[in-house]
Fold this protein.
Amino acid sequence: MPLLFEASVLAAEVDALGESVWRDHPQKFPGNSMLPLLAAGGEPANESFIGEMSPTPELLRCPYLFKTIASLGAVAGRTRLMRLAGQAEVTPHVDQGYYWTDRVRVHVPIVTQPTVRFECDGITINMAAGECWIFDTWRKHRVENDASQSRIHLVVDTVGGPDFWTLVDKGRYHDAPIDGWQCRAIATGGAPLQLTSERYNIPLVMSPWEIHYRLNGLLDEADPSSPLTHTARQLSATFFKAWRSLWVQHGDSGNGIPLYLDARQRFFDAIPPEVKAMVLRNGTYFMDGVVALIGKIAVRQP
């Protein structure tokens, strides 16, 4: 993206926060730690994906870090600093969770080294300090830090916004230089920018149209010539019709929850094992995607 930040200023603000504010990675990956900046209710310990994402006390202590996030022109979601120790790695994975499917992940390297390697969908790059990058987290990706110093990135999950997508349109691919292409430097100081964050993120009951969208998105990642994909599309269409009939009766009023749950379970039970085990383009299984995008989210239970 055509933005450039003063990494040394960001690094100084982060360093001033001290070590005590850092937390273990939620999955306890060795050598991985994180520092929440925007979290549900502004509580650093709150890992929820539901509710208003507000600045944590640590972010409020860092004016340039705050400005960096605000300058993206996006509605910011969960935001954190991600630290990878020297000689550590983020193993290959896909971000399958519902929260990430419609959000872009923005990376701003704050402390890094030229030898840190970021790989996504078979392409390896180095993100230099102060640059601004986005990538497709649905593709398999990994990070390797073979240096002795820790790597720290600002990581912002966002659905974007008009100004953000204008910036994206002005960006360039990693392997496609553009004559005269320049980044806009974001200076320190000046008038504070407004930071807009999300408030509504996880549905109480998923609409049938979102059900349709999610399932089609998964099936578009499957082999179109396979009869298994055809079977999955038929079962998905049946499920959509059942869900739609419940929606026009109950919507997301909170009523009819047992009926929604029953329809979901009947859909799951109808999927043959060989369809569940279909491998998608990113190397994940069809059923894992169904569970992540539908099973855990279609009905939010108290």
Summary: Residues 109 and 129 are 5 Å apart (CA to CA).
